[in-house]
Amino acid sequence: MKKQGTDLGTDSVGKLLLKLALPAILAQLVNMLYNIVDRIYIGHIRDTGAIALTGIGLCLPMILLVMAFSALMGMGGAPKAAIYMGKGDLESARKTLGCCVVMLTGMALILTIVFLAFGKDMLYLFGASDNTIPYAWSYLRIYMCGSIFVMISLGLNSFITTQGFSLIGMGTILIGAAANIILDPIFIFGFHLGVSGAALATILSQGISAVWVLRFLRGEKTQLRIEKKYLQMNREYVLPVLALGISPFVMQSTESLINISYNTSLYKYGGDIAVSAITILSSVMQMIFLPLSGLGQGAQPIISYNYGAGNNDRVKKAFRLLFGTSLGFAAAIWAVIMLFPGIFVRIFNSSSLELYDMAVWAMRIFMAGAFAMGGQMACQQTFLALGQAKASLFFACFRKLILMIPLIFLLPLCLADKLMAVFLAEAVSDLLAAAVTVTAFLVLFPRILKKER
Q1: How many helices (H) and strands (E) does the chain have?
Q2: N-term to C-term CA, the chain
C-alpha cells in the first residue's frame, strides 16, 4: 500500500516508524492536553477550584465509557481494514469501515439516552457527595449531549492513521485541541459558566474534529471511503471487528471501573480531597500512557500490513523498534515525574495547600511502577496489530480486572496506612502486569508468525 510516498511493504522499517509514529505521538500529546485542559482551567477557578476538580473526576467513568465504545469500533475496525488492504481486498476494507460508522452512531445515541436518564444517580453511586454533585452533573449532562461527536472523531480517526495518513490523523486531534484551549477560558471565565462552560467547550471542539474526519473519509485522497452502499450491518464484517475491538474496549471500559473503584475507596479513607488528588494523578499518568499509545498507533499499520502480506522479518523488526522506544520513553518521563512531582501538581491546582501536599506524596507511590508500562503496552498493541483478539483481551483484563481492582480494595485491609495502600495498587499492578505480558509475548510471538493467516 503506497500513500503520500509511504510504502508499508518495502520502505525502511525504521524510517516508517519515525514517519508514522512521530505525528501519532504528537497527536496523542495534543490529545492529552485536549483531555486535561478542562481540569487545568477548572482547578484554577477561584475559591471553588479544588471541589470543582473533584466533580469533574467523578464524571470520568462515564467519559471513559464513551471512549471505550469508540475504541471498540475504531481500534477493532482499523487493524482489520489494514489486514484486508494488505491482502489486496479493498472492498472488504470499505465494508468494514461502513459497519463501524453505523455502529458508532447507534452506540452514541444509546449512551446519550442512558446517561441523561440515569447519570445523576450513577454519580452518587460512584462517590459523589452533596458538595460535589452540582459540579459533576453540570458537566456530565452537557458532555453527553455531544457524545456522538466524541465517538465519530475518536472512532473513525483510526481509519485515517491506519492508511498511513498520520498527519491528517494528527490534524483531527490538533484542530479539536486548539478549539478547546481557546473556548475553555472564554466559556469558563469570560461567560462565567464554570464547569458547564468547560463541557460546552469540549463538545463543540469535538464537533469540529468530527467534521474534519468525515470530510476526509468522504474525499478522494482516501482508499477507505465512507459510501452509502457500505453503511450497513453485515455479520461477516461486524463480528470480526467486535472480536478484535473487544480488547481495547476492555482496556478503556476497565479504566472506568478502576476510576469508580478509586473514587469510592479514596472518598472512604480521605474524603473529597483524596478524590481530587486521584483526578490529578490520573491526568499525569496520561503523560506516559497517551504518547505510548501514539507510538503503538504509528507501528500498527506497519505490523498489520506486513503480517497480512506475510513479511515476517519486517513484522519482527517493527516490534523490536516499538518495544525499545516505548520502554525508553516510559522510563525517561517516569524519572522526571518522580523527581519533580510538585511541578505536575501545580499545573492543576496551586491554591489548595491540602490538595498539593496529598497529591505530591501520593504521586511517588502511585507512579512507582509506571516505567515498566512501556514494555507492556508495546506487547499489548502488537497483539492487537496481529489480529490476536484472545491474547490481547486476556492481557487487557489481567492488569486491571485481575490485579488492580482487587488490590484497590484488598491492600487497605493489609496495611496500616489505608490511604497510601489505595494509591499503591497502581504501582503493584503495573509491575506485575508488565512482567507477565512481556514474558508471554516473547513465547507466543514466534508461534503467531508461523500460523497461516
Answers
A1: 15, 2
A2: 19
User: 187 with 193: CB under 8 angstroms?
Assistant: yes
- pLDDT tens readout for residues 381-392: 898 888 886 787
Amino acid sitting at position 412: P
Do the Cβ atoms of 50 and 357 come closer than 8 Å? no
CB atoms within 10 A of CB 9: 15
pLDDT in tens, 9-63: 667 777 788 788 777 777 667 767 776 888 888 888 887 888 888 898 899 899 9
User: The whole model's pTM is what?
Assistant: 0.79
Express the helix, strand and coil content of the chain in percent, nearest 5 each: 85, 0, 15
What is d(CA 221, CA 210) in angstroms, rounded to the nearest whole number?
Answer: 18
- Counting Cα atoms < 13 Å in the Cβ hemisphere of 300 gives 36
- Residue 352 has phi, psi (to 5 degrees) of -100, 110
User: Which residues partner with 6 through β-bridges?
Assistant: 3
How far is residue 49's CA from residue 331's CA, in Å, rounded to a whole number?
A: 32
- Asked whether the beta carbons of 387 and 307 are under 8 A apart, the reply is yes
Q: In angstroms, rounded to a whole number, what is the distance separating the alpha carbons of residues 248 and 257?
A: 14
What count of residues does the chain have? 453
Give the 3-state secondary structure of residue 6.
Answer: strand
**What are the CA-CA distances from residue 178 to residues 41, 171, 348 (Å)?**
14, 10, 19
Separation of alpha carbons 361 and 419, rounded Å:
11
C-alpha cell at 425: 495498587
Cell of 105: 452512531
How many Å apart are CA 380 and CA 294, to the nearest integer? 13
> What does the alpha-carbon distance between residue 282 and residue 287 come to, in Å, rounded to a whole number?
9
